[in-house]
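TICKET #2291
ISSUE: user wants both folds in one file
ATTACHMENT 1:
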Amino acid sequence: MVIKRKKREDSRAQLEFSFGRPKEKDRNAHLGGKSFYFFDFDDNVVYLSTPIVLFHKKTNKEVFVGSGEFAQENKRIGKSGPYADYYLNFDDLTGSFRYFRDHSFGLLDKIVRKKQTFVQDVAKAIQNAEYDWKAPSWNCFYHATFNNRPTSVITARGHDSDTIKEGVKLMVKEGHLPHEPNFLSIYPVSNPEVRVALGDKELTSSIAELKRGAIRESVEEAIRIYGYSPHHRFGMSDDDPHNVELITEEMKTLKRKYPEMSFFVIHTHQDHFVKEEVLQHKLKRKKKSQNFEQVALI
């Protein structure tokens, strides 16, 4: 199994596709195939300000860190570096990731139409300049939405899927998306019910392992809904290196099961991305010079 790689630099400030742009046919539509787009959300499609909470080992004092800093420091938390004296608390209600979970609202909250933190953070983000909140895969997400490609959101968050949809609807309402995506599936893999559905009955699997299972289920769901075609194309974009590693392994497994289909992994990071196609044989394919929008598409 080999991987074909393409890399291109691009700034974070990405322009939206024009609303007057004609819809594009799926590149394999004439062969009966479809392209399926799978996205991680945070720091991949959108930059959100949702904080992770660290707790001091002695005083339990809380320190808030962003997802970008957490990605850099998480392996050292409690061991070395600036957060050597802190720890992670995994309680969904009061712990480190409480803002990445939904919470039950009382009657008063419902009366004033209080929103879940994800929806609040999306609303806050899209009030800023576009280059502040549009992450590397935004153009690809917009393209998939604009052209009604079957789309899956596979995120480490633990919200209900309806909460994710509500946040995306807000982007539609504010004119950043032309309409709602053609959702194939939504997997907030830290949600306990989602974890169990993915086979993690003991709630012990890592986020990367859960995302791997969500990809597998999404591919099978695509085939159930749209039928089998050797010309189907599947791509997943994510910004976390460890997630990308296991995502790639899952794509290799799927390639062995469906050797005629095409599978892609897109690793996004700050101002660039690396696109990899999983190939079954050691065959070199001709590389074409493409602009960012074209390279980002599967």
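ATTACHMENT 2:
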Amino acid sequence: MTARAEAELRRLETAVTAIAANLVDLDDNPARKELDKTRLTGRTAAAWADATAALTELWDGYRLLTEVITRAQQLRDLKRPSDAERAQLRHEVLGASITLSVEVVPLAQRGLLGPGQVHTTCTPAQLLSAMEAAFATAVGVATRAGAAWDRLLPAAAEAATALETVRGLTRQSGGSTATIDQADRLLGQFTATLATDPLGVREADLTAVRSLIERADAERTSAGELREVLTQRLADAHRLAAELVAATDEAHAAAGKADGRFPPHEIAAVPAGDLRPDLAAIDALAAAGHWPLISARLSDWNRRARERLTTLREGAAHNGGLLAARNELRGRFDAYQAKALRRGLAEHPQLSPPALAAREALYVAPCDLAAARRAVNAYQDALTATIAKDGR
């Protein structure tokens, strides 16, 4: 029986040496130190409270176990132990020699023969088993929390760097930062939770942050492409605006030449209005980076500008055509008169009235082109008839 006690004592001595080393290592663990100094929240706070209680039990158990081993070693090392001392050794090592707690029983709850105190005891082996469970609890919390910090803190820092990179590029391109701002808020919440509750943080939130950053980068790229396209369209619009200015000047010039020479209803009026302020407003949107608002406005401006350009050019052509038609009729009339002169019919009584009518229609303003054309045709017909009649 004594041999068994001595073997158990050797096992306890080995165990207590390992316990001491492991408790020191646990005290030096960076995650454990971080957990101790952090104001924890959520699941981690609850788990670390249990782990802290387990650590207290561990150190108390280590003290109790060390005391038992010390007493047992003193008994074992006696040169000539008595039977009572051998029995005491066996009790210390194999029996319920460790008092875990002493509770005073209230007088009202005692029987006449009942004890005033209740002692909770256990064997060293039982204490060692309980300490192993407590150690597993404390180590488990510290290990899981440390692993979460080691894995997620660098990942969060990497996400923060990517976020700021995309934010900078988005600002350079003049795009909206709404998506990247959303990612920033979510990342802030994630890192705040990670700092105080590593066991309760949702890694899916970090995945969501990465997705938002990727989406913001895609939006930035799309915004950049949109900006490039719209910048070209704006340049085209400014060229169109320059064409409008030139066409407006030409239309005014043509209308000015026709004014007073033809009836007002025959002259194409130059349309009022100026589209340049509308284009300037679109330029202001571009300068402010509101590219998504530009496309529809620019399309509408281009439509109106092209319609106006067509109207201006058609009006200028029409008014220029009035002068050209009048000049063509004058040329015809002059040619017919030259023909009459060659044939000696310039003063012919049959030709003088239509000649006078044609001249008045062509040279007295305002010129009614329809009437002038009829007058020239009448003079031509009269000349042809006179030549045929007189045989000249």
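RESOLUTION: both attachments delivered.
EXTRA DETAIL ON ATTACHMENT 2: The chain has a mean pLDDT of 86.
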